[in-house]
Write a structure and sequence with these properties.
It is a multi-pass membrane protein. Helices cover about 70% and strands about 0% of the residues.
């Protein structure tokens, strides 16, 4: 009986699509049945559906893939913003210290604009390529190699992102517990061991949230996560007004910073003070090579764009582009403010993770303790959103065409989390992983794949048109950037082997 109903529904879809060119859309049911025709005023959709895609097999695919969305515009913005905003926000001050204010600002804005253009290419390709799944676009553009390229890039990028979040849990949660217990140093108790804590958080919080069937439900946790990061930024700005420059702590070991003016006097000559507290606008050193990959990594949201698009209520390409524009603009402002505040507080003494620099100054500060809790909450709630595209990629590659299974849904999520936990527990440093993933997977997802898919699949635009030429230039820039970044990072590894500088 259900099969008969499905056939009747598919026939209705077929009739509505065939009638589209002979009569106007005048009923709500027609709009619902042709959900993928999202922009009625956009001729590309009509061309896309009329381009030899009237077969019953294709209708069955639409019926399965292009379900009506139920996530509001606001929730979609929260989800995409949360997908963009990662642990990278804690390392942007360090990146600014190694590039200078002006160079960093230029690179940050440039990567944000390129990311927006890339999302535009991806949405155009999804419309004409006939799929809202990244791997299927790759398959339709270049066959099996395209599918594997998309799959590998998404897996690498998102596993790197998940690992960065879990690294923060591993290193920050023991410090928070220690501060709550009032301990001067972390002792050997199991509940102060980051390796145990990251496993408990993964099983107790992340795994249950990862079992939700749709991304839309995570909009509430995404909104709360973004509020946590706004709170983090506000406290950083407040602390900047309270801290003197230069900070005696970095040259005289003490358990806490006293704000008495007498403690500052006589420690430095005026000349040293002025040099140490003067911002640099252009900086080039061995760490500068990591800056652009880190920024690329910070703006990659492309694996989440299509899943969020597929669940957007009353979806249209224009509406999803507005979701992307607003999300990336919000994150650009937060990134810029966070980098500036951290750099102008500690200058060249800022560490790779901003919170660690603050905790060297304030051992038991209540407001900073709340900030650490807020950041921990934010990254913990972001992990399930990053896990969704990984599971979707694995399902598409290995279980395409099969019915949804809760057991498979659970097992894939558990396996992904287990792998990331192993990575976080046994890999001592993540800076080099960030550099490699930012140069390879992030570059593939921002530059190379969207441009290549657009050139191959969008037939409505002539090859010599400005749009196609722009996409081709974008593709070439991506290839040059990938080769250049990887070369610089490998050279840095040769001269400064990973792990030799310590830290995480």
């Amino acid at each position: 009986m259900p099969g008969a109903v499905d056939r009747i529904e598919l026939r209705k879809v077929s009739d509505s699509l065939e009638d589209r060119y002979t009569k106007p859309i005048d009923s709500e049911k027609d709009i619902t049945d042709s959900q993928f025709l999202d922009d009625n005023e956009d001729g590309e959709s009509q061309k896309f559906l009329s381009n030899g895609l009237m077969k019953k097999k294709k209708y069955e695919e639409y019926h399965e893939e292009y379900h009506p969305g139920h996530t509001s515009f606001g929730m979609s913005v929260f989800n995409l913003s949360n997908a963009i905003m990662g642990s990278g926000i804690l390392g942007l001050s360090y990146a600014m210290a190694n590039t200078g204010i002006l160079l960093f600002s230029f690179l940050l804005v440039a990567v944000a604009i390129l990311s927006l253009y890339s999302v535009h290419l991806l949405l155009m390709t999804a419309k004409e390529g006939g799929s809202l799944i990244y791997e299927k676009l790759g398959e339709r553009a270049f066959g099996w190699p395209g599918k594997i390229a998309a799959f590998g890039s998404i897996i690498m990028q998102n596993i790197g992102a998940m690992s960065s979040y879990l690294f923060i849990v591993k290193y920050e949660l023991p410090e928070v517990i220690r501060a709550f217990l009032g301990l001067e140093e972390i002792s050997g108790e199991w509940y102060l061991n980051g390796n145990y804590l990251v496993v408990f958080v993964s099983i107790g919080i992340i795994l249950p949230l990862s079992l939700l069937k749709n991304l839309g439900y995570l909009g509430y946790t995404s909104g709360f996560s973004l509020c946590c990061m706004v709170f983090f930024l506000c406290v950083m700005i407040y602390k900047k007004t309270q801290l003197p420059c230069p900070l005696p702590f970095f040259y005289h070991h003490s358990s806490n910073l006293s704000m008495n003016g007498s403690d500052m006097s006589g420690l430095y000559s005026p000349r040293n003070n002025e040099e140490m507290c003067t911002p640099k606008y252009f900086v080039f050193n061995s760490q500068t090579a990591y800056t652009v990959p880190i920024l690329a990594f910070a703006f990659v949201c492309h694996p989440e764009v299509l899943p969020i698009y597929s669940e957007l209520k009353d979806r249209s390409r224009k509406k999803m582009q507005n979701v992307s524009n607003l999300s990336i603009m919000m994150m650009l402002i937060m990134y810029m403010m966070s980098a500036l505040v951290g750099y102008l507080t500690f200058y060249e003494n800022v560490e790779a993770e901003l919170l660690h620099t603050f905790t060297k100054v304030y051992k038991f500060d209540t407001m900073l303790l709340l900030v650490r809790l807020a950041v921990l909450t934010a990254v913990t709630l972001t992990v399930p959103i990053v896990l969704f595209p990984i599971r979707s990629s694995i399902t598409t590659l290995l279980f395409s065409g099969r019915e949804f299974s809760w057991i498979r849904h659970l097992l894939i999520a558990a396996a992904i989390l287990a792998f990331n936990n192993i990575l976080v527990i046994f890999v001592p440093t993540i800076r080099d992983i960030f550099g490699f993933i930012g140069s390879s997977a992030a570059t593939m997802l921002i530059f190379i794949l969207p441009a290549a898919f657009y050139i191959r699949l969008v037939k409505s635009v002539p090859f010599r048109s400005p749009q196609k030429i722009g996409a081709a230039v974008f593709l070439v820039v991506g290839v040059i950037f990938m080769i250049g970044s990887l070369s610089l990072i490998v050279l840095d590894w040769i001269h400064n082997p990973p792990g030799s500088s310590g830290g995480h």
